[in-house]
Amino acid sequence: MSDAQPETLVPSETTPAPESETYEPEPELELETAPEPEPELKSETAPEPEAASEPEPEPVPYQARYAMEPLDVVEASEIDATPWSIRRRLEALFWRWPAALKRQWPLLVVWLAVIAGLVLIYLQYWRRGSVVVGGAVGLAAVFRLLLPPERAGLLVVRSRTFDVIVTGLAGAAIMGLAMIVAPR
Question: How many domains does the chain have?
Answer without folding.
Answer: 1
